Amino acid sequence: MLESLRKLGGVEWEIPIGYTPNMNVPGKFFLSDRLAAEVEEGAIQQLANVATMPGIVNYALAMPDIHWGYGFPIGGVAAFSPDHGVVSPGGVGFDINCGVRLIATPLREDEFDNRRELIERLFRAVPTGVGARSPMKLAVSELKQLLVEGASWAVEHGFGMDADLLHCEQEGRMEEADIAHVSEKALQRGIPQCGTLGSGNHFLEIQVAREIVDRDAAAAYGIAEGQICMMIHCGSRGLGHQVCTDHLKVLEQATKRYGIDLPDRQLACAPLHSSEGEAYFSAMAAAANYAWANRQMIMHTARTVVADLYGVDYGEMHLVYDVAHNVAKFEEHLVDGRRVELCVHRKGATRAFGPDRPEVPQAYRATGQPVIIPGSMGTSSYLLKGTEIAMEKSFGSTCHGAGRVLSRSRAKKQYRGSTLKKELEQRHIVVRAASDAVIAEEAPGAYKPSDEVVRVVDAAGLSRVVARLEPLGVIKG
Amino acid sequence: MPFTELEHTADILVRVNASSLEQLFAEAARAMFSFMHEQRKKGSFSRTLALEAADRETLLHDFLSELLYVAEVDNLVFSDVDVSISGSALAATAYGEPFDPDVHAEGTEIKGVSYYGLQIRKDEQDHHYRVEILFDV
Question: First vs last Cα of chain A: how many Å apart?
Answer without folding.
Answer: 37
